[in-house]
């Protein structure tokens, strides 16, 4: 589903038989200006979804952005100005704000994680724990926040996880079978030091160290040569990521970036003209 399809579905969901409140007021077109205001410090993402949501109902709406995606915006700053028929803008308001608030929330939350690991070699990764049909938008928001995208979907990269290992009867059998059928780089999940040693012996490209405490993580990283990338995952939060980054892993993957980011607090202020 592309952005236009998402917007059409969102508008249909919000007003399946029109906006009965606004339409019952029998308002004629009312030209004016609305300003999008940040009600807290945020990192901006979702500008195209916001603008196209407006233009879906008011094709003549003119949106002037005062910031770019990825910019940090302070509380009470004006993010953009919209000019056009405010009756139609009013109908599109909630859908547009839902997109921008959700995506800016992800970017803002990601930026907090990225700042926690500043000064280390560690990069913050997202996961596939995204809202169905919103993955492209949400992963772009992660990038706007300074994070890095992990695989976009199951078709783009190989990651041998615990269930793959279980069904194949071990890491070695799983890696050997994958290499028979694919030339892509191989990442393997390991939850014990024995599994780490086995993955190292197979010269995989990256080892995902899953749900290990910091003491076990240190031992695991010491076993892995620099030629193999390391990724830590599981129970990662703002309080912990710094200590994990200082162990020396290349990546920390954080599902919360997309599944638990708070919505950014923004609002639309209308200035009606007679």
TrEMBL record:
<feature type="binding site">
    <location>
        <position position="189"/>
    </location>
    <ligand>
        <name>substrate</name>
    </ligand>
</feature>
<keyword id="KW-0328">Glycosyltransferase</keyword>
<feature type="binding site">
    <location>
        <position position="151"/>
    </location>
    <ligand>
        <name>substrate</name>
    </ligand>
</feature>
<feature type="binding site">
    <location>
        <position position="94"/>
    </location>
    <ligand>
        <name>substrate</name>
    </ligand>
</feature>
<dbReference type="GO" id="GO:0009435">
    <property type="term" value="P:NAD+ biosynthetic process"/>
</dbReference>
<dbReference type="InterPro" id="IPR002638">
    <property type="entry name" value="Quinolinate_PRibosylTrfase_C"/>
</dbReference>
<dbReference type="InterPro" id="IPR036068">
    <property type="entry name" value="Nicotinate_pribotase-like_C"/>
</dbReference>
<comment type="similarity">
    <text>Belongs to the NadC/ModD family.</text>
</comment>
<dbReference type="Pfam" id="PF01729">
    <property type="entry name" value="QRPTase_C"/>
</dbReference>
<dbReference type="InterPro" id="IPR022412">
    <property type="entry name" value="Quinolinate_PRibosylTrfase_N"/>
</dbReference>
<feature type="binding site">
    <location>
        <position position="210"/>
    </location>
    <ligand>
        <name>substrate</name>
    </ligand>
</feature>
<keyword id="KW-0808">Transferase</keyword>
<dbReference type="Pfam" id="PF02749">
    <property type="entry name" value="QRPTase_N"/>
</dbReference>
<protein>
    <recommendedName>
        <fullName>Probable nicotinate-nucleotide pyrophosphorylase [carboxylating]</fullName>
        <ecNumber>2.4.2.19</ecNumber>
    </recommendedName>
</protein>
<dbReference type="InterPro" id="IPR013785">
    <property type="entry name" value="Aldolase_TIM"/>
</dbReference>
<dbReference type="InterPro" id="IPR037128">
    <property type="entry name" value="Quinolinate_PRibosylTase_N_sf"/>
</dbReference>
<feature type="binding site">
    <location>
        <begin position="233"/>
        <end position="235"/>
    </location>
    <ligand>
        <name>substrate</name>
    </ligand>
</feature>
<comment type="pathway">
    <text>Cofactor biosynthesis; NAD(+) biosynthesis; nicotinate D-ribonucleotide from quinolinate: step 1/1.</text>
</comment>
<dbReference type="GO" id="GO:0004514">
    <property type="term" value="F:nicotinate-nucleotide diphosphorylase (carboxylating) activity"/>
</dbReference>
<dbReference type="GO" id="GO:0005737">
    <property type="term" value="C:cytoplasm"/>
</dbReference>
<feature type="binding site">
    <location>
        <begin position="127"/>
        <end position="129"/>
    </location>
    <ligand>
        <name>substrate</name>
    </ligand>
</feature>
<dbReference type="GO" id="GO:0034213">
    <property type="term" value="P:quinolinate catabolic process"/>
</dbReference>
<comment type="subunit">
    <text>Hexamer formed by 3 homodimers.</text>
</comment>
<dbReference type="InterPro" id="IPR027277">
    <property type="entry name" value="NadC/ModD"/>
</dbReference>
<comment type="function">
    <text>Involved in the catabolism of quinolinic acid (QA).</text>
</comment>
<feature type="binding site">
    <location>
        <position position="161"/>
    </location>
    <ligand>
        <name>substrate</name>
    </ligand>
</feature>
<keyword id="KW-0662">Pyridine nucleotide biosynthesis</keyword>
<dbReference type="InterPro" id="IPR004393">
    <property type="entry name" value="NadC"/>
</dbReference>
<feature type="domain" description="Quinolinate phosphoribosyl transferase C-terminal">
    <location>
        <begin position="106"/>
        <end position="268"/>
    </location>
</feature>
<feature type="binding site">
    <location>
        <begin position="254"/>
        <end position="256"/>
    </location>
    <ligand>
        <name>substrate</name>
    </ligand>
</feature>
<feature type="domain" description="Quinolinate phosphoribosyl transferase N-terminal">
    <location>
        <begin position="19"/>
        <end position="104"/>
    </location>
</feature>
